Amino acid sequence: MTGSFEDSDVRQTYLDPLVARLREHGTMEVGRLTLQLPQSFGFCWGVDRALAMVEKARQEFPEQRLWLLSSLIHNPRVNADMRRMGIGFLKGPLAEPGAFDQLGVGDVVIIPAFSAEVEDMLYLESRGVAIVDTTCPWVIKPHKRTLKFLREGFTTVIHGTVGHDETRATCSLVQHEGGHFVVVHDLGEAEILAGFLRGTVAAEEMRRQLHPQAFSEGFDLGVHTLRLGLINQTTMLAAESRAIGNLLRLAVLERDGEEGLADSFRDFDTICRATQNNQDAALKVAGDNPDLFLVVGGYDSSNTRNLARVGDNANVPAFHIEGPDAVAARLSYRDRASGRILEIEDWLPQQGPVRIAFSAGASTPDTILGSVIERVVRLAGENLPLSAV
Ligand code: SF4
């Protein structure tokens, strides 16, 4: 493997000629369809790096069993490819039962781009396994910030998703270092916390409304909400993170006054650049008012989910779909309000000009996006020019 992470052999297998052409031109007319892609979408630097590190590990340890602690990234195709390469999974839905407990010297364990819980890292070290750590440097940023908050006596407020690998790792770090955290998933949950700080929401009400695992063990509402430092899971909706920061700042200002604010509130943006760029670019294409906005990526991918929300904010019909199998007369998509996988009929106008914008999450291979576009074109009764595929 030479050159940049994008040059790795495994990365090359995810390239797609149709997406490459659309990436170059931005739009393409296909019969009555106008296909549009944003300036930034798909695999991020952190994913390219993780894939390149897996490839290097396979070369360095040709005789040893390679394991992934859990999904390398949140995309079913990529994880299935890892299995096809002979890499086993220790945790999550693809885990080989009992494998985690039987690790020993000679095993090689790959830490995913999201990082890992402190307890798992200590266990792996105790078993003497070789560790290949693909943790994205952007994920380290909130870790560093939360440790700074802790040293300065702040509780960490995490704008993130309880149970998401990255947020689980951050929570375990805070707890392991003797600190405290509270996780708010969205603006609605932040409003509950802000209400508590202002004194308009009772403690029991806040406990009831936030996720049961949103608080660190031993979280004392009277003590651990006095000084708050906000960070974000790297893949959240940037606009919402900013709104949450402003909301909590105002609530603390109301509670502690101008002088107290500086001593009791910190706000540090830890959204990663790839997430920010993809969201900004998606907002731009959504601003052109396409008839449809299809966002492609794993249903458990946080950054893809938030990319689809960009369409909502622009009042464009936007659907989060997992891949080409979702594209049929009835479109299968993830409903953002309920999190359920639903189907919708008549989603693709069968006559007249249609402008369709696409985007893809940071963990979505171009090959999947390309297959989605091809299916949509066929379903609309059009054919791609041979030069595009
Ligand atoms: S989405 Fe951001 S934080 Fe996650 S792997 Fe990519 S660059 Fe890193």
Strand content: 15-25%
Rg calculated over all Cα atoms:
22 Å
Strand order of the largest sheet: 1-2-15-11-12
Secondary-structure element order, as H and E? Answer: HHEEHEHEEHEHEHEHHEHEHEHEEEEH
- Overall number of structural domains: 3
CATH level 1 name of the largest domain: Alpha Beta
Protein structure class: alpha/beta
Count of β-strands: 15
CATH level-3 fold name of the largest domain: Cobalt-precorrin-4 Transmethylase, domain 1
State the shape.
globular
Number of helices: 13
Largest sheet: 5 strands, mixed
CATH architecture of the largest domain: 3-Layer(aba) Sandwich
Could you describe the 3D structure shown?
The protein is 41% helix and 16% strand. By secondary structure, it is α/β, with parallel strands linked by helices. It folds into three domains: 5-44 and 273-388, 4-hydroxy-3-methylbut-2-enyl diphosphate reductase, catalytic domain (Cobalt-precorrin-4 Transmethylase, domain 1); 46-135, Rossmann fold (3-Layer(aba) Sandwich), CATH 3.40.50; 138-267, 4-hydroxy-3-methylbut-2-enyl diphosphate reductase, catalytic domain (Cobalt-precorrin-4 Transmethylase, domain 1). Strands 1-2-15-11-12 form a five-stranded mixed β-sheet, with helices on both faces. The mean pLDDT is 94.
